[in-house]
Specification:
Blueprint: H1 2-29, H2 38-56, H3 60-91
Helix pairs in contact: 1-2, 1-3, 2-3
């Protein structure tokens, strides 16, 4: 039981770290204008993306794929957020 809790904690910490990286890259690229309100959304997207994959694939490749998806989901979320802000700014006239 203790080993299971330890490994689940390590997985979640890894997914959180990978969810933080796209937000950090966006924050550096925009000179700190990534928005603190999108940090929890980015972290949650990383954990949810990483947690989603083991339900589909339960083997070693699924573990690796969960970390890839934990990086891809927040990246897509922040990209959609930035694109919608540019689209809204362009339609205001």
């Amino acid at each position: 039981m203790l080993f299971n809790a330890l490994f689940i904690t390590l997985y979640v910490l890894g997914w959180l770290a990978l969810g933080f990286l796209p937000w950090l890259a966006l924050s550096v690229a925009t000179r700190g204008n990534a928005g603190m309100r999108y940090l929890p959304a980015s972290l949650a997207a990383g954990v949810l993306g990483g947690l989603f994959v083991p339900f589909i694939r339960d083997d070693g490749l699924g573990l690796i794929l969960s970390f890839v998806v934990a990086l891809a989901f927040p990246t897509l979320l922040l990209t959609a957020q930035r694109a919608s802000r540019r689209w809204q700014a362009g339609t205001r006239g």
